[in-house]
């Protein structure tokens, strides 16, 4: 799939904001710990991916009801849903000047009902000719996402027969509908009910 930038300006994928707050000390300190012995982009990006995938619990798996959505919050609490984990990874990548953005899939339940937006990350290493998607959701039985820039190893492959969608756009910031759901949710259960079903 050909990925396309929502913003033509690559600087949009390096910017800090309220959500992707990579200028926050929590994000900076985490970034500094991940690959202290190298300035090389690939080992750092892989370390950041594995850190978020493996040490930040997906709250649906852990049962944690807290809602986190700023990168600094996600890293401080080590908790979040797929969107929050993706935001944290984007912030860690941008903290080391690696262009990164948010991508999405529209997924459905096993029987094709209850569609929901799933969050992914796109990154572009220095010198790379194209963007690559990775999925820091967190592995569990039946889910084996890996850091692979050549061949995608995402948590899920979309099923067209259930109207699932791979959106090709790389967003520089989360969509407003997603942010509204995060800001208004009192707990993860409420957030789950209010997440958008698609872009």
From TrEMBL:
Signal peptide: none annotated. This is Transglutaminase family protein. SUPFAM superfamilies: Cysteine proteinases (SSF54001). It comes from the Bacteria. Residues 30-136 form the Transglutaminase-like domain.
């Amino acid at each position: 799939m050909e990925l396309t930038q929502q913003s033509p300006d690559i600087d949009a994928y390096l910017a800090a904001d309220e959500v992707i707050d990579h200028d926050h000390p929590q994000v900076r300190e985490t970034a500094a710990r991940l690959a202290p012995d190298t300035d090389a982009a690939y080992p750092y990006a892989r370390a950041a991916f594995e850190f978020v995938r493996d040490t930040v619990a997906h709250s649906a798996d852990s049962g944690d009801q807290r809602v986190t959505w700023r990168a600094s919050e996600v890293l401080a609490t080590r908790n979040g849903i797929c969107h929050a984990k993706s935001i944290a990874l984007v912030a860690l990548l941008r903290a080391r000047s690696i262009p990164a953005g948010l991508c999405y899939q529209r997924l459905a339940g096993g029987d094709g009902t209850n569609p929901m937006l799933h969050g992914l990350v796109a990154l572009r290493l220095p010198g790379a000719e194209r963007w690559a998607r990775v999925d820091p959701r967190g592995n569990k039985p039946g889910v084996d996402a890996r850091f692979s820039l050549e061949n995608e190893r995402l948590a899920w492959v979309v099923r067209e027969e259930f109207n699932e969608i791979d959106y090709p756009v790389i967003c520089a910031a989360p969509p407003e509908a997603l942010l509204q759901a995060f800001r208004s949710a009192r707990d993860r259960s409420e957030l789950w009910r209010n997440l958008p079903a698609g872009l």
